[in-house]
Amino acid sequence: MTVTGVAAAQAAGEQETIDEKKAVTYLEAIREGLWEEMEADESVFILGEDIARYGGAFKLTDGFLDHFGADRVIDTPISEAAIVGAAIGASHRGLKPVCEMQFIDFIAPAFDMLVNFAAKSRYRTQIGAQIVVRGPCGGGGRGGPFHSQNVESYFLNVAGIKMVAPATAYDAKGLIKAAIRDPDPVLYFEHKFLYRRVKEVLPDEDYVVAIGSARIAREGGGLTIVTFGQMVHKSLEAAEKISAEDGAEVEVIDLRSLNPMDDETIIGSVRKTGRCLIVHEAPRTGGIAGEITARINELCFEWLDAPVRRVTGPDTPVPFSPPLEDYFLVQVDDIVKASRWLLAY
Amino acid sequence: MTVTGVAAAQAAGEQETIDEKKAVTYLEAIREGLWEEMEADESVFILGEDIARYGGAFKLTDGFLDHFGADRVIDTPISEAAIVGAAIGASHRGLKPVCEMQFIDFIAPAFDMLVNFAAKSRYRTQIGAQIVVRGPCGGGGRGGPFHSQNVESYFLNVAGIKMVAPATAYDAKGLIKAAIRDPDPVLYFEHKFLYRRVKEVLPDEDYVVAIGSARIAREGGGLTIVTFGQMVHKSLEAAEKISAEDGAEVEVIDLRSLNPMDDETIIGSVRKTGRCLIVHEAPRTGGIAGEITARINELCFEWLDAPVRRVTGPDTPVPFSPPLEDYFLVQVDDIVKASRWLLAY
Amino acid sequence: MDDLSQTQLQELYYYMKLTRSLEGRLEFLFKQGKIVGGLYSSLGQEAESIAAAYALEDGDWLGPGIRNLGALLVRGVSPKEMLLQYMAKADGPCRGKDTTTHFTDPVRGLVGPISPLGTMICVMSGVALSFKLRREPQVALTFIGEGATRTGAAHEGTNLAAVQGSPLVLIAEDNGWAFATRTHEEVANTNLVDMAEGYGVPGVQVDGNDALAVYAAAKEAVDRARGGGGMSIIEVKTYRMKGHAQHDAQKYVPPEELELWRARDPIDRYISYLTAESLATESEIAEMDKRIEAELDQAVSEAEASPMPDPVSALSGTYADAPPAELWAREL
Amino acid sequence: MDDLSQTQLQELYYYMKLTRSLEGRLEFLFKQGKIVGGLYSSLGQEAESIAAAYALEDGDWLGPGIRNLGALLVRGVSPKEMLLQYMAKADGPCRGKDTTTHFTDPVRGLVGPISPLGTMICVMSGVALSFKLRREPQVALTFIGEGATRTGAAHEGTNLAAVQGSPLVLIAEDNGWAFATRTHEEVANTNLVDMAEGYGVPGVQVDGNDALAVYAAAKEAVDRARGGGGMSIIEVKTYRMKGHAQHDAQKYVPPEELELWRARDPIDRYISYLTAESLATESEIAEMDKRIEAELDQAVSEAEASPMPDPVSALSGTYADAPPAELWAREL
Ligand SMILES: Cc1ncc(C[n+]2csc(CCOP(=O)(O)OP(=O)(O)O)c2C)c(N)n1
Ligand SMILES: Cc1ncc(C[n+]2csc(CCOP(=O)(O)OP(=O)(O)O)c2C)c(N)n1
Ligand SMILES: [Mg+2]
Ligand SMILES: [Mg+2]
C-alpha cells in the first residue's frame, strides 16, 4: 500500500528513491504535523481524553506532555461536549485548540456544540471558532458498531464546518497543519486502518495541503473514481487490477477535503472520462456520494456517458464479527465490478 | 394554502365540498392523531419540556394532562438526551413513548442517544426502540439560527432511523399514527410555519399514512418536482403559476417520508417527465437532494432529458432578520425560475 | 458595602433602572410590532445579573444568558446596541443574523450564548481555561437558569472548570420557573448550591433580589478565582416576574406568588437602602431616572432610524475564507 | 449478613469465582487470538458488581457496563453466552453484531449498554420510569464508572430518575482510573457520593471490595426504590487491577498501588470471611472451584465449536419491517 505513498511523494516533488528508514507512517505524519505546529505557534494546544499521561489511545500524542508541558497537553474528563466547548471558548481568546475524540464515534455527544456553537459562530457574530476536532474513524479493526463509524455525513449539511480526511501520510501531515491554521472549525478524520499501514518519506520543509483541494491519485481516461480515506487504497488496487486485466485506465480522485469539496478537479476528470463511480465506506443512504452525484449532475451532466454510480457500505450499523464486518466493508472486488459495469456501459 | 388541503382530502376520498367548520389545522391534526393513539393504546405516553402543565410551546398537547393524567403526560427537565434515553428504556419495557423536542433544533443534544442507542438497537440486539421524537422544524417564523433548522440531513446517513415530514393536515395525522405504531424509532418533523396555515376536513375513521409512501400532490407531464414539508406548498404555487403562464404542467411529489423514501413514486414520475427538480429548505450541501439525485441517477438515468436540479437554502445558518431570512428561504419565484430552466432544457 | 464607593452604589442603581426601562421600551416596541422574534424579560431579576457583572474588572469575560441584558449593560453594551439587535437591524451586533444577547465581542470580553441551553458553561470554561493556561489574572463569569442546569452540557462544562481549577464564576439563577416548569420538577433538591460539593467547588446561596448580597458573593468568588482559587458556584434565589417570553401570558402562575415577589422587588428594595443609608436622595434618584429616559429616547429613535440588513448579506460570513455561500446562487 | 442464607452466601462466592475464572479463560483465549476486538476485565472489582446485582429480585432490570460481567452471570447469563459474544459467534446474544455486555433481553430484564458512556443511565431511568408509571413494584439497577459520571448523559439520566422519583439504583464505581486518567483528574471531589445531595437523593459510600457491605447498601437502596422511595446512589470504592483493556499494559500504574490493592482482593477477603464464620469449609470452596472449572471447560469447548455468522446476515435486522439493507446490493 506504500504505492500511494510513492505517488503522493512524487506529486509533492520528492525523489523517486525512497529511503525506507526515513519513511513515516500515517500516524506519525499526523503526530509530526501536530508537533511542528505546536513548536511553531505557542497558541496551539491539545486536549482530550488520555492524551497526556497515556499519549492517546493510539499513542499519537505520546511524548507531547513531556515536551510541551501540562499547560498545552491536557487530559480532560470524559466530556466531549465540554472538550469542544472549551476549545471554542479558548479560540475566542486567540488560542488554537486541537481536540482529540478518542474514537470519532464519540463526537456524537459533542454534536450540539459543533453544529450549533462552533459552526454558526462566525456567521452570527463575525467571530469564528478556530478549532480542530480530530479522531480515528472507520472500520476494519473489529471495533463493532461504536468504534468503526464514518461520521462525515452527520455534518455535511452543517454550514460553517470544514471536514478533511487524508489517505496518505503526506496529506495527513499537510492537512493537520492546514486545519490548525484554518480560522474556522475543521473536523479531521483519520482512518485508523491506515495509521500504521501506509508510510512514506515526507519533505523536510514545512508544507501544508490546502483544504478544499483534491488530489488525482492515479490518472486514467476511462472512468473516474471519486473517493477518500481508506477507500482510496482499495480504489487504487481496483484500478491496477482493471488496468492489468482489462487494459482500461481508471482515474482515482482522492478528495482529501470533504467540505469544501474540490468541484473543479472532480468535474475536470468526469468531463474527460464521462463515467464516474463514487466509493465511500459509510452506509449508502445519505452518504456523501449523494452530494457528489448532485454536483456532477449539475456541473457536467452533458458529459456523462453513464449514470454516476456508488459503491458504499450498506444501510446498517457496522457489525462486529469478522465475516460480517468484511461483508459490510467495501472490498476491492466490489469496486472492480462496479467499474467494469460502468466501463461497459 | 388550503388548496393543498383540498387536494389531499380529495386524494383521501373526501367529498369535494369542504365544511370549513369541520376543517382542522395541521397542528390540530397532529394533536388528534396523538390523542387517538393515546386513547386506543394505553402503552402510548408523551414526555417533553413544558408539554403537560403548559400544553407545549405551541399548545399542541394542551389538555392532554387533564385527560390522560400525569402518568402519561410528563413534564421533564431540560434534558433532551435523557428524554430520548428514557423513551428507549420505556420502549424496551413495551411502552410506546412519544417525545417532544420543544424545537427540533434541540434534538442536537440527543444526537448520540438517537444515532448510537436508538438507531442501532434492533440491529445489535434484535430488540428495537419503538419511540417517536417529534418537534417543530423549519423557517419563516423569525426564529433565528436555533429555532428554524431542518435537521433531516443530520440523520439521513444513520441506518435504523425513520423520518417523516408531513405537508398536509391529512398526512400529519396519518403519519403521527403510523409513527407511533411503527416498531422502530421515527423522527417526526412538523413544519411550524404550517401549524395554523393549512387546514382540511379529515376522515372520521381511523387511518394511517404508511411510512415510506410519497404522494403525488399535483399531476403533470412536463417536469417532476420532488419536495416535502413547507416546500410542497411553495412548489404547488410555482406549479400553478407555470401552468397559468407557460401552459406547462408540473408534477409535484410530496415525499412525506424521508427515510425510507418512496423510490417507486419518484422514479415513476421522472420516467414520465424526464426532468426533475428537487426543492428543500435546508442548506444545499449535504441536503437530502443529493440522495434523491443519486437514486434518480441510478434508477432512471436513461430517462433524463436534463440534469436533475435543486433549489435549496444556501450554505449558511438560518439568519434572523426578516430580509435575510426571506432571502435565505426558497421562494416561489426561485422554484418557477428553476422549473422554467428545466422545461426549456 | 465596604468596597463600593457611593458613586458605585449609585451606579448599581443606574444599571438596574436602565435595564428595567430599556426592557420596558422593548416591550412597548414589541407591541408596536417593531421587535422581531421573541422578547425575553428579566423583570424582577435585574439585581443579580447586574450585581454579579459589577464584580468583574476590565479584561474579565462575561457569558450572559438571554435574561442577562443588565449584565451586558454593565460590561459596556449600549442600549442602542440591544435595540438594534432586537429590531434585527443591519448595524446591530449580529448584523441581523441573530438576536437577544447572542453576540460575541472579544474586545469587551463577551461571549454570546446559543439557544441550546447549558452549552455556554462549556465555552466559558474554555475562556477560563485560557486564563489559567496563560497565567493571566483574569476571570470568566457566566449565568445558568435552574432549568438549564439539568442539561448535559451544563454538567460537563461545570465539571471541566472545577477539575481544571479554572477561574470561572457560575451564577445559578433559580427564578422559580423554566418556561412553565417549576424548579422542583427540574431538580429534586431545589437548593442548586448543593451541587457545588459534588463538583468539589465552593458554593453559596444568596438572595438574588438583594443586589449587595449578590455583589458581595460575586466579588468574593471573582477574587478567589483571580487569586488561583478556581471555580465557584453562586446560587441566586429570585423570581421571573414575566412569562417565559412576551408570547407567554403566564396563566399558570398563581397570582399570590407574583404578589409575594412584587413585594420583594429588587429595585424598590435597593432604593429604600440607598435612601435609608443616605447614599442617594430621592431627587438624585429622580435625576438618574430622567437621564435614563433621555438616553433611551435617543437610543430608540436612533435604532428605529437604522436600516435593515441588505438581503444579500444573508449569504456571507459563514467562513472566513472563500465562503461557499458567496459562490452560491439559486440558478446554476 | 442477616438476610442471606448460608446457601446464598456460598452462591455469592460462586459468582465471584466464576467471574474471575471466566475472565481468566477469556484472557487465555484472547492470547490465542480467539477473542475478537477488545477485552475488558473486572479483576479486583468482582465483588461490587456481583453483590449489587444479587440484591435484585425476579422481574427487576439490570443495565451493566463493560466491567459488569459478574452482574450478568448473577442475572442468569451463562458463561457460554459471554464466550460466544466475545468470540463474535453467530449464536452469541448479538449474533456477532456487537460484543461484550452489549446485549438486551427484556425477558431477563437486561439492557445492553452502548459504548458512548453515560447513555445507559438515561435508558435505565426510562426502564425505572416505566415501573413507576405502571405502578409495578420493580426496580432498575445500573452501574457507572467514575470517569463516565462526567458525561452529560450521566447527569441528565441521573437527574431525570431523581426528579421523577423513579425506582433506580445507581452504582457509581470508583476504580481509580478511567483508562489512564485518575479519578481526581476527572472530578475535583473524588467522593462521588457527594453528588447525591445535589440530585436530592440518598447516597452512600461503601468499600467496593467488601461484597457484603455492597450487598447491604444495594439491598437497602433496592428495597427503598421498590417501596416508592425513588432513586439512590451507591458509591463503591474499588480498583481496576488490569489495564483499561487487554491492549493496555498499564505502565502508568505505580506498582505499589497494585500491590496495595492486591492485598485487598475481594475474593480472598470473602473466602476468609466464609471460613472464619464457618459458612464454608475449605473443601467446600475447592469443590465449588472444581465445579466452576468443569462448567467453564464445557462452555469454552461448546463456544469454540460454535459457528461464525453467515456474512450475508450483516445486511439484516436494522429495521423490523422491509429493511432497506436487505434490498441493498452492491450492484444496481
Ligand atoms: C437544550 C435546550 N432545550 C430546550 C430549550 C428551550 N428553552 C428555552 S428557555 C427554556 C427554559 C429555561 O429555563 P431556565 O434555565 O430556568 O432559565 P429562565 O428562562 O428561567 O431564565 C427552555 C426549555 C433550549 N433553549 N435549549
Ligand atoms: C462518550 C465516550 N467517550 C469516550 C469513550 C472511550 N472510553 C471507553 S472506556 C473509557 C474510560 C471509562 O472510565 P470509567 O467510567 O471510570 O470506567 P472504567 O473503565 O474505570 O470501568 C473511555 C474514555 C467512551 N466509551 N464514551
Ligand atoms: Mg428559571
Ligand atoms: Mg473507572
Q: Give the number of helices of chain C.
A: 13
So, the CATH homologous superfamily of the largest domain in chain A?
Thiamin diphosphate (ThDP)-binding fold, Pyr/PP domains
State the CATH superfamily name of chain C.
Thiamin diphosphate (ThDP)-binding fold, Pyr/PP domains
Largest sheet, strands/sense/barrel of chain C: 5 strands, parallel
CATH architecture group name of chain C: 3-Layer(aba) Sandwich
Shape of chain C: globular
Compact description:
The complex is a heterotetramer, with 2 copies of chain A (345 residues) and 2 copies of chain C (332 residues). Chain A is of the alpha/beta class and 345 residues long.
How would you characterize this protein structure?
The complex is a heterotetramer, with 2 copies of chain A (345 residues) and 2 copies of chain C (332 residues). Chain A is of the alpha/beta class and 345 residues long. Chain A has 13 helices and 14 strands. Residues 1-16 of chain A have low confidence and may be disordered. Chain C is of the alpha/beta class and 332 residues long. Chain C has one domain (6-328): 3-Layer(aba) Sandwich (Rossmann fold), CATH 3.40.50. Chain C is 46% helix and 9% strand. Chain C has helices at residues 6-31, 46-54, 69-74, 79-86, 119-133, 152-164, 183-186, 195-199, 211-229, 255-262, 266-276, 282-305, 324-327; strands at 61-63, 140-145, 168-174, 177-178, 181-182, 203-207, 232-237. A 5-stranded parallel β-sheet of chain C has the order 1-2-3-7-6, with helices on both faces. Chain C has a two-stranded antiparallel sheet with strand order 4-5. Chain C is globular, with a radius of gyration of 20 Å. The interface between C and D is medium-sized, with 29 and 29 residues. The structure holds thiamine diphosphate (2 copies) and magnesium ion (2 copies).
